[in-house]
Amino acid sequence: MSDAPDVGELTPPNRTLMGPGPSDVHPRVLRAMSTPLVGHLDPSFIDIMNEVQELMRYTFRTDNKWTIPVSGTGSASMEAAIGNLVEPGDTMLVPTNGYFGGRMESMAERAGGEVVHVDAPWGEPLDPADVQDAFDEHQPDVFGFVHAETSTGVKQPGVPELTSIAHDHDALVVADTVTSLGGVELEVDDWGIDVAYSGPQKCLSCPPGASPLTLNDRAMDKVLSREEPPRSWYLDLSLLEGYWGDDRSYHHTAPITNVYAIREALRLVAEEGIEERWARHRRVAGALKAGVEAMGLGLNPEDEYWLPSLNAVLVPDGVDAGAAIDYVLEHYDLEIAGGLGALAGDIFRVGCMGHSARPENVSFLLTALGEALEAQGADVDPEAGFAAMREQLGQ
Amino acid sequence: MSDAPDVGELTPPNRTLMGPGPSDVHPRVLRAMSTPLVGHLDPSFIDIMNEVQELMRYTFRTDNKWTIPVSGTGSASMEAAIGNLVEPGDTMLVPTNGYFGGRMESMAERAGGEVVHVDAPWGEPLDPADVQDAFDEHQPDVFGFVHAETSTGVKQPGVPELTSIAHDHDALVVADTVTSLGGVELEVDDWGIDVAYSGPQKCLSCPPGASPLTLNDRAMDKVLSREEPPRSWYLDLSLLEGYWGDDRSYHHTAPITNVYAIREALRLVAEEGIEERWARHRRVAGALKAGVEAMGLGLNPEDEYWLPSLNAVLVPDGVDAGAAIDYVLEHYDLEIAGGLGALAGDIFRVGCMGHSARPENVSFLLTALGEALEAQGADVDPEAGFAAMREQLGQ
């Protein structure tokens, strides 16, 4: 057996995070994570759980009792939603317009469901007429859509129209709000969303590890009346009901520190005010958008579908996206990302989320990206970018 | 929609954690958690991942390449083990001698497996003859056992004998090492354990959220040659292979801060030395055991099966266990727990794990528990307990 490894102190580089997530964590959230633990069944932890639920309802704009942090990263809350809602024999309608529709499909199939599709190209939202057609043709039990597609930077407009179609067909609606919660207008109750899941490391600027999930009574009724249990014990909401519901009985050990963290992150949302927070994201990301456009770059989605929290910036002709991404990381300790799937090599994905959605970050991004593109000989005008940014910010 | 909730600063009580977990987190681990994040695909994070894997192999006493932190609490690494190893149609042999055998059963069934049992009463270990009989009768594909039963305070002796029986029948062995890893002698490779899972919040004294898992090549070959994918996408080890293996490709966002934390917790193991750490647990928990016995209390398991990290102290006649547990929490901010299932009301579960396994904690426990029992009129002798404790510690 080997000797004890000699591993040095933790000294990661000091990055600025403007990729698709994680975003820069607020110092108050980092500080909350160094709080000593209480037990997951401690009476004082129950108060903390209640506070987290209350703050999370506020952030989701819902009165749903079933609003909890799932003990894992965003994909865990996603699988908790889909794996509990989809029973063997159910049909789930999923979109094809981005990476995360594909993940929905994989999860629904593993849950024992049949999957049907509503098509739209990567980089475009769903058309309600196509959703209507898919419902008429397939009569799905569950409809999943992505409110804010992290892979394409597209915001799905007209959510109430989509949920109406689903409800007219007696289906339940699951919304992926990973990159919208806490940063982009989202009205779970008013828009008729039955189930929404999210991640903490995007617009909430909280480290990943405990992930928001909300279900209304109609969805929870389906979960609690399943004929066979969900295929994951860890993510079984009927068992978690014992812990987060009135009993407070043991299911699994909650990730206590991550619950502390999301409590602080959600407190910051409440202090700022959810509508003010949406407005800040629009304003700061608007300056980012104006800046990159004035610099000579385009954004992939049409303005109508622009997602402030994730800006899909088109890579100029002749530029190697990977090399530019490496350049800003190496020279500026700045993280941005490239495209996935159908958009690999075609876009930069530039996040503007939570604590990263600040004017100084936009300025920094324009500097770094401009220099990286000029280093490859691209015809960009950073000065024009700065001017447009300042104008948008009223500076 | 409701107004922003007015939730105050995070001020949990200052507990001493000597229940079945979490244990007191080492200050260096808490501090590591306030480190700003890098992205989960950052080149620097890949180095951190490598270090965590190397430290985890050292702690598990294994050379297994497949040694990773699973993105969730201990039950997630448990379900990752069982859900990947058990295919529909497989038979899994599970024990009946504690709470966590029952959880294994539930997970194996959800994975599509058939479950058969090897019986032993709660509070006793498995008898190899019974394991042999169960193998001869059922020919299971997978055998799960609990090395350190958190619900009963029993350590399973003779693990190599159990794994030999399983291997003679061409089965794979999964060991629950949640309450042994890093505190109680455990030799994954030498003992022939194919798969072991654990939690970070016991003898590693790390907050829950990223949980150790190790699989040898034989187990991983089964996982990678499954006919149908595991039923959880989140916990699919063939997909996680892309992230933790040579590709380092995106699967899900890792809980970065929890990886920082477990890195620091495992560094502390390496600094202390794994064998020295086992010896400390034996010594300090030995003083706890001697102390409670001299005070007039018994331990539930026979000495041969005593589990240093979790002491199942018998509740004296006439004492209300719940009232005593509440007493020490209220008067001493000390967390201990009661029994589960067949042992509910009959035992106190007193952890002595990781950073909580210190002489001062033992002294504190004897003071608090002695007073709580005296408050209920029990005939205990705390002074004799202190004397025995000091003698064991050589003080």
Q: Top keywords for this entry?
A:
13% strand, 13 helices, Aspartate Aminotransferase, domain 1, 2 domains, transferase (chains A, B), globular, pyridoxal phosphate (chains A, B), 14 strands, 3-stranded antiparallel β-sheet, 395 residues, Aspartate Aminotransferase, domain 2, alpha/beta, 42% helix, homodimer, Alanine--glyoxylate aminotransferase family protein (chains A, B), PyrdxlP-dep_Trfase (chains A, B)
The tally of helices of chain A reads 13
* Number of structurally distinct domains of chain A: 2
Oligomer: homodimer
Strand order of the largest sheet of chain A: 2-10-9-8-5-3-4
Q: Outline of chain A, from the CA principal axes?
A: globular
Radius of gyration of chain A: 21 Å
Give the class of chain A from helix and strand content and strand pairing: alpha/beta
Strand percentage of chain A, roughly?
Answer: 5-15%
* CATH architectural arrangement of the largest domain in chain A: 3-Layer(aba) Sandwich
Mean pLDDT of chain A: 96
Total E-strand runs of chain A: 14
CATH superfamily of the largest domain in chain A: Type I PLP-dependent aspartate aminotransferase-like (Major domain)
How much helicity do the residues of chain A have? 40-55%
Termini separation of chain A (Å)?
63 Å
Pfam families (chains A, B): Aminotran_5
Keywords (chains A, B): Aminotransferase, Pyridoxal phosphate, Transferase
Protein name (chains A, B): Alanine--glyoxylate aminotransferase family protein
Family (chains A, B): Belongs to the class-V pyridoxal-phosphate-dependent aminotransferase family.
